[in-house]
Amino acid sequence: MTVRNRGALAAMAAGVAALTVAALVACGSQPAEDVGADEAAALATATPPPSATATGASVPVTSGELPTGGETVPPVKLSIPGIGVTATVDPVGINKRTDEFEVPPSVDQVGWYRYGPGLEAEAGSVVIAGHVDSAEQGKGAFFRLRELDRDDALTVTGADGKQRAYRVVAREEYAKTKIPLERYFARDGRPRLTLITCGGPFDQKTRHYRDNIVVTAVPA
């Protein structure tokens, strides 16, 4: 169920749909009700620091153009001790053939959306997405993402060798047709980290999960 008619965010919508993978079992127990939704929304609408306004508006993913203005620091490693995650982070974009978010094929790895902000950015959402599981490979790096809760800690290491600590402020679940992509792929608002995987009921007919799990974290 890809979404292709929402302007510059159409390919992003298709990309989020690509986080679904054929699976042996459903995603497991449903997460508790959403937490921190209001805070996540406020982060996306907050006025960024004056020095960050030069980053501009969202970059259309279909153009394949990297943002300008300074050196980007990509994430290369993600650690979430509470759910046992230590994963390599690969820079990814959009698959030109499918117009989908090109998550790394190995479920042990996760992908950073390279047309969005890097770790050095003073505004915007750094997006990292990963598989929940796979029929061929088993549980993915984000299999337990739905278990994260407020104040859980995680660390992202950049290509510059610097470790950056984050604190979870929100965990939300959306039907894939309802996820507010403009919020989670924004280049404005307060600096934050957005983690995305799939979840909810597994449709045996389509071999897709119905929903997306979205975790929002802020610099600790």
UniProtKB/TrEMBL annotation:
Please give the superkingdom of this protein's source.
Answer: Bacteria
Q: Which CDD domains match?
A: Sortase_F
Q: Which SUPFAM superfamilies match?
A: Sortase
List the PROSITE patterns: PROKAR_LIPOPROTEIN
Any signal peptide, and if so, which residues? 1-22
Question: Per UniProt, which keywords does this protein have?
Answer: Hydrolase, Signal
Q: In its UniProt entry, what is this protein called? A: Sortase family protein
UniProt organism field: Micromonospora purpureochromogenes
Its lineage reads: Bacteria, Bacillati, Actinomycetota, Actinomycetes, Micromonosporales
